[in-house]
Write a structure and sequence with these properties.
By secondary structure, this protein is an alpha+beta fold. It has two helices and six strands. The strands form two sheets. Strands 3-5-6-4 form a four-stranded mixed β-sheet. Strand 1 and strand 2 form a beta hairpin.
Length: 94
């Protein structure tokens, strides 16, 4: 089984099976989570110098900062999980 990658913006990708949560960075607990990850050397900044718009938490306790909105990343994740009818193999179409 080949690992599926999710585009988190600016040419950066994350392995889908490792994602635990995609959250907004606005709340105080998320700011603390970001600082704790930085102290533990588990913070990955994938914003490419832009403002942080979402935080991705992985099963290895890594915290990934992205410059793309959490809703946009979630939509990309859902569209990857549910292929359109045109992309289905012929035996699965009804």
């Amino acid at each position: 089984m080949e690992p599926r990658l999710l585009n988190i913006g600016f040419g950066n990708t994350v392995v889908v099976n490792r994602i635990v949560a995609i959250v907004s960075p606005a709340s105080a607990p998320m700011k603390r989570l970001k600082e704790d990850a930085k102290q533990a050397n588990k913070l990955i900044d994938a914003t490419m110098g832009r403002r942080t718009r979402s935080i991705i938490i992985t099963d290895s306790d890594h915290v990934i900062l992205s410059g793309v909105q959490a809703e946009t990343i979630a939509q990309r994740l859902l569209s990857d999980n549910h292929p359109k009818d045109g992309n289905l193999p012929k035996q699965e179409k009804e």
